[in-house]
Amino acid sequence: MKESDWKKFKVIKEKAIERFCSQALEEFEEVISNTEEHVHNRYLLLYKLVRNRDKEMALIFDYHSRSKAAMQLTAMRARGLADESLLAGLSEEFLEQTDPKPFGWN
């Protein structure tokens, strides 16, 4: 991985974590504020949702290393966490390597 891609990846990862957390918090808020659902059911749903988002976050973002960067960026792109404005400045090689479409992720 080129040094310039690594530096840019660190910024992308930070922004993607912010987006992921914001999206998760919005989902949590929807569950919490759904007064049509019984409070116990909302609690159970929220618990499951938090666990699932925590697992997803770990899969996408844990272990900050160059060896994991391509896999992580592929997952971020597949989940819509790294848009074109964030990807600007990455090498064509790294963009091709992290394109989720060939894996059927997008």
What does this structure look like?
The mean pLDDT is 94. The chain has one domain. With 106 residues, the protein is an all-alpha fold. The protein has helices spanning 3-33, 39-61, 66-78, 84-87, 92-97. It is 73% helix and 0% strand. The chain has five helices and no strands. Helix 1 packs antiparallel against helix 2 (39-61) and helix 1 (3-33) packs across helix 3.
List the helices and strands and how they pair.
Elements: H1 3-33, H2 39-61, H3 66-78, H4 84-87, H5 92-97
Helix-strand sequence: HHHHH
Gap from first CA to last CA: 23 Å
Roughly how many Å is the radius of gyration?
Answer: 16 Å
Percentage of residues assigned to helices: over 70%
Shape: elongated
Overall pLDDT level: 94
Q: What is the number of E strands?
A: 0
- Sheet with most strands: none
Our estimate of the beta-strand percent is under 5%
SS element count, helices: 5
Spans of at least 5 consecutive residues whose pLDDT stays below 50 are none
Structural category is: mainly alpha
The count of domains is: 1
